[in-house]
Each structure stands twice: as C-alpha cells, then as structure tokens.
Amino acid sequence: MTANERKGTGVTGLSVIIAGGGVGGISLAGMLTRQGARVTVLEKTPPGRGRGAALAIWPNAMLGLLASGDAEMYDAVLALGRPVHHALMGSLDRRWYGRVDLRPLTEHYGVTGLGVVRTELMSALVELSGADIRYGQEVIGATPDGTVTLAGGETLRADVVVGADGVGSAVRRALRPPGSVDRLGKPHTGWQGVAHQTDIWDGTGPEFMFGMGGAAGMLPLTGGRTYWFVDGPIDTRPETQGWPEIVNRMIAATPEDQLAKDRVYTRAPVRGWGAGRITLLGDAAHPLLPTVGQGACMAIESAAVLAARLRDATDPVAALRQYERDRFRRVTTVFKRSITLLRQRSIPDPLRNGMLSLMPDRAITFFFTGSAKPIPEFAGAHLTGRRVRDSVPERDGGS
C-alpha cells in the first residue's frame, strides 16, 4: 500500500508541529504530509546547520522510510549513498582481525549500509518534506494541550506536537516537573570530517581501528570522498593525537573550516516520554553514542513508527502513547549495545584485539550489525516497495 492510498485514515487533516528540523524531524514531516497531515517544522538554526559531517544509513532506517514514507523518499536517500558490503576491524597499524559481512543485509532486506553526506541528506529530505519549515524559530516551551511558545513570545497550537529538538530539547524540559534534573552521561568527544582528496584510500567498505582507548574509522562516500572520525579530546587538533598516517592524511585533505568537533551526550531511555498531545523523537527522547552508528537511523525508525501509529489511530493522543510504548524496548536495546561497544573500546589493546581475533566473522558480523536489522513491521517493506539499486559493485578485500 502506498502513502497516497493511506490517505483518509487517522492522519488526514491532522495539524502537527515538529520542534526541530534535523534528520528525524524532517523525515517525520515527509512521512506525515504524504499521509495527509498539515505539518509545521520550527527550527532555531539557519538552513544547513547541524551536527555531523556524514553518517551511515542502515536498512532499519531505509525500510522505515519506505514503509511510512514512500518510494520517492526511499529512492532520494538511496541515490545519495554509496552502498557498502563489508567492514574491517583492526588495530592502529591496520592489522585486520575481523571482517563484518554486510551482504546478508542486502539479501534479506534489499539494501545494505549507505554512506551519506549529512548536508546532502538534509537537502533531499527538506525538498521532499512538503511541510512549512520555519527557520530561526526557537521553541522554548510546550504544554500538553498542544501549545508551543517561541523565543519571541508567539504561541502556536496543533493537534500533535513532536519534540525533535535534540539532546537539550526544550520540549523535553517543558514536560518535566519544576526543579527536576535530567541528567546526561559523560560526553563522548572526538573529531570528524569529509576528505575531498580521492587518491588517499581506495577502500570499498568502512574500516575501524582501535587503540589508545578509542577508535578511528573511515567510510567511503560518493564522488570518491571519505568520511573519517577519531575519538579523543577536542581541545587539541586530531592529527597530533597519534592516529595512523592514513587517518592524518584524511584530516589534512579536509577543508579547515569543515573539521568538526564532536561532543555527544547520552542518557538511558525512560518510559512515557510524552504527555497529552506532546511526544519526543530521536535525541530528545533517547540520545545515543556514535559507537553503534544508529543515532540518525533510530530517529528515522522512530519517525516511521510514529507516522504509522498516527495513521492507524482515530485518537492522536492514544497513538502517541502507543508509539512511546512500542519504541521503549527497541531504543533501550540499542542504547545498551552502544554502551557495550564503548566499553569494548576501553579494553587494553592486546586483550581486546586478541579477543576479537578469536571470534569468527559471523559472530563479529552479528555483534556489530544487530541494530541495523529492520524491526518486524518494516522488514518486508522492500518486497512491496522499491528494491535497491546497487550502484557500486563490491571488490574483494579491504583497502
């Protein structure tokens, strides 16, 4: 069933305010407008701003787009990404002790992981959103009756309000009792960027290198570009921190003004993250560490579930509570996995590398890709939707 065929259900004519114009908020806007809702997005920053240079989009997010959005949204994201078919795990001297095989994802779900530049992803999602997107509009408060207050004093009201305004969400704060403390975990810090020089690395899949109590990695993108990241302090430049020469060359090939400091906070998910006509989405509800590569993907997946619950309900408030119940276990599982992977990075190098070198590739693949599998209600979306176009053939080996 296409999104157009769903019109006339619970979303038709629904007014929705989304606070926050990031990946999750704009994805939700596109899904809901395709189902007949009137959507307003309020984003405090100018167009093109936002954390992150690039990201991986995994099958769980892609099939969420296809199931609750439509083939147009799916195809637009697919066209931006470079498919990857394997990932290599190793030490800082690039001795590979594990290979993650991503081909079963394509075989089961019609799509594998995709490396996507964040600004290009956002441009595509905005173009397809069909929403009234208002930049420079900061939401500072919200009430359960669906009223939001802007920094300039204006108030707006909708049938549904979604706080997709990030880890420091003003909508989330508005829902908490006065004087309560919403504690965050210790921030995870590092650097990231996109290298534009194409002759540094010819890898066809991600490479992850562990050492010094942290990790560095590279992900191929379209146009011969490479996304890279390194863990570490952000008060010193990344190339001074002892990473492998190939990583330092990536850093040198990144425009100076595009070297991005990364400070990511997390908090354990809690039940019932909404009230009345308000709910939360993405980092506002459940910020994740980058260790699992699922921050944006879980926001898209949650958007797809929320759009589906609103589509199928006659009472939007009941749909919000059902969405929150349905998402709690899933996001908690992914949160715990992200913490486990962070702890794995802190194990002394010889012990960690030795343990991983003894694991068969199938076990390593299961360990690192468990979160990338679509949830059951979306797992078959590609069978009735648009199947992947595999634009980049796999080459044997790593780099």
Question: Can you offer a commentary on this structure?
Answer:
With 399 residues, the protein is α/β, with parallel strands linked by helices. It has one domain: FAD/NAD(P)-binding domain (3-Layer(bba) Sandwich). Helices cover 35% and strands 22% of the residues. It is built from 13 helices and 18 strands. The chain has a seven-stranded mixed sheet, sandwiched between helices. Strands 8-2-1-12-18 form a five-stranded parallel sheet. Strand 15 and strand 16 form a beta hairpin. Helix 2 packs parallel to helix 9, helix 3 packs antiparallel against helix 4 and helix 9 packs antiparallel against helix 10. It is globular and about 55 Å long. The N terminus and C terminus are likely disordered.
The radius of gyration computed from the alpha-carbon positions, rounded to a whole number of angstroms, is 21 Å
Beta-strand residue fraction: 15-25%
Largest sheet: 7 strands, mixed
CATH names the topology as: FAD/NAD(P)-binding domain
Alpha carbon gap, first and last residue:
42 Å
